[in-house]
Write a structure and sequence with these properties.
Length: 206
């Protein structure tokens, strides 16, 4: 299945992730990400998908300026519909490759990379992280959300569809030492949160 068709199908069901895995907002990565945002921040949401993170942030921080980029028109169309329904004026969406961003260096305070890196082969992941670092200001944060399997039997059963359906890079990425992995890009892990089925890492430039 080619990627365009895959994301066309995924756009229709992608928001089920929040229903199944992140429904307890108090323990979800969405809350952690939202709490890291300031009311005047300039935020870039890479591979924004249906813009769940961007919408949550824009709703709770009306003074923040949120930009979401994604290569999938279908994902962006779902996102635009959700934004119109909520009448949000502080989000802009662009069809754009996250490995070749059309933004000036150092122009964002916070950059979100949510459930993306594990899907990418090493060369693409490297390009995206390098671009994220480029457009981040020197005092800014890259906030990465990634899956984290649980030791609980019940949670492992619920998580099984993710474990089996994720693409090939997932199985190697999930085992990596995150401090070492991001360290090779000149990024330090400042905070490490464990949330439902996931982890949130706050990265800063060294």
């Amino acid at each position: 299945m080619n990627s365009v068709l895959f994301y066309k199908m995924m756009a229709k069901v992608y928001d089920l992730l929040d229903v199944i895995y992140f429904r307890d907002y108090a323990h979800s990565p969405r809350r952690v990400v939202n709490d890291r945002i300031g009311d005047k921040d300039r935020i870039l949401d890479l591979c924004a998908g249906t813009a769940t993170n961007a919408i949550n942030i824009a709703t709770n921080h009306s003074g923040a300026k949120v930009v979401g980029v994604d290569l999938s028109k279908d994902m962006l169309n779902v996102a635009k519909h959700k934004i119109r329904e909520k009448c949000l004026g502080n989000i802009r969406l662009y069809e754009m490759d996250a490995t070749e961003l059309r933004f000036k260096s150092g122009c964002f305070d916070k950059i979100l990379i949510s459930l993306v890196i594990h899907e990418l082969e090493d060369d693409l992941a490297s390009q995206m992280i390098s671009e994220a670092k480029r457009v981040l200001n020197d005092d800014g944060e890259i906030i990465v959300t990634e899956w984290e399997p649980s030791d609980s039997l019940i949670r492992r059963v619920i998580f099984a569809p993710i474990h089996f359906l994720e693409p090939k890079p997932y199985k190697s990425f999930i085992k990596k030492d995150m401090y070492e992995y991001f360290g090779k890009y000149g990024l330090s892990v400042e905070r490490y949160y464990h949330t439902d089925y996931s982890r949130v890492l706050v990265l800063k430039k060294r």
